[in-house]
Amino acid sequence: MNASIGSTAAAPADNATRPASEGVDPRLAGRALKRVAFSEREIADRVAALGREITAAYPDGELLVLGLLKGSFIFLSDLVREIARPLHVDFLVASSYGNDTVSSGIVRLLYDPETELAGKHILLVEDIVDSGRTLQRLVELLRERGPRSLEICALLHKHIATHLSHPVKFVGFDAPEEFLVGYGLDHAEDFRHVPYVASLQ
Question: For residue range 32-54, what is the model confidence (pLDDT) as tens digits?
Fold first, then answer.
């Protein structure tokens, strides 16, 4: 694996002040948009660029793209179609324990990937990195499986991951400090299917 290949996240830039359009999106079930953080076009362009970066980073070896459900499923499905090399896909479902506001860092795998991980390049795909507590524990668990390499790819990164010691190698966008939905991100299981990333009023 070429360790010199990395990812530079696309910053929100003028998106930070972009208001929502006046039209009402029926997918939002009556909720009003505060603003669109990242449009369909911006996401598509960035995912294509990430696909090229990942292709270049893995010139040889077996690549397993491992999606963390549920939030990564749309991002992962678009991403793998932009990676121009052989790969396999599998998924993880993890549950962290703690009270309503603080994760204990104790993580249990509710769905363990069936694919053998030993000797393979593992690319763990996440929708958004915030505290990093659960992701850090998952990295530790996956390392125990003996992969050839292990890297993280995230659509969004808030850069507040004080509990994550493993760097996020591939980043789509630097995320603003607000609650975001769409493109796999949800609020109480709503809005995952919205094709852009937005904040709600």
Answer: 888 999 999 999 999 999 999 99
Read off the amino acid at residue 119. Answer: G
Q: Which helix (H) or strand (E) holds 198?
A: strand 197-200
The identity of residue 122, as a single letter, is: I
Tokens of 158: 């808030």
Domain coordinates of the chain in residue numbers? 62-180
Fold designation for 62-180: Rossmann fold (3.40.50)
Q: For every residue of 87-156, which 3-state class applies, written as one string?
A: CEEEEEEEEEEECCCCEEEEEEEEECCCCCCCCCEEEEEEEEECCCHHHHHHHHHHHCCCCCEEEEEEEE
Q: Which tokens hold the place of 58? A: 């893995």
**pTM attached to this predicted model:** 0.83
Positions annotated as catalytic residues are 130
